[in-house]
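Feature request disguised as a bug report, sorry. It would help if multi-protein outputs had a clear separator. Right now it looks like this:
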Amino acid sequence: MNGIYALVFGIITLFVAFVRALRSLIVVIFMKAGKSMKWFVSFGWLYRPVSLQGYMVFFIFLVFSLHILIAALMQTQSLAGALYTAFPFVIPAFGLYMWIGSKAS
């Protein structure tokens, strides 16, 4: 049982380190020479891409979400099951997209 706890703790530690490194990288990219670059524009509660970098982030999010949904549809026998299977992956990806949008707008 201790091995499982060590594995979970190691995964969580790696995830936290990855998020911190990603945050630092995004701050460096967005804050070049003291100016903030506009990749997105606020569109109600969402963020609409306005530059090539913004469209690339949106395209990556879209391809990832479609990939997960297609895999979930192939694995389950109902639409509700597919949505239930894809939910833990698509919602955090959407949250990451919104976070990047809020930092780059």
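(second protein starts here, but nothing in the output says so)
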Amino acid sequence: MKNEKFTKVVKVGSAIVKIYRGKVKMKRKKYDAFTVAYYQNEERRRSVFGNFDDAKKATQEIATKIAHRRVNVKELNGADRESYVAALNLLRPLGVPLHSAIESRR
């Protein structure tokens, strides 16, 4: 591996995530390190992987989530999900969105 630039760009829709290759030194040995870099909520985020395949997989997942606007979306646990679905089912026949029902209670 010569002193060459290495950047892999993954684009999904308008989302762009990059992989940069670098070196890390641990106990007098140098190892390849692959840094996945992207922007989330106007902040630069980075994750480092020890092999290219793991970095590439993470890059594809992150780009897909960003493209589908699923980054930073709260995941609901079992009980919260059941409560959410039950509320939607109760409101559906009335044609009232959940946020409207909550706002009317204020």
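Even a blank line would do. Unrelated, but nice: The CA atoms of residues 36 and 58 lie 8 Å apart.
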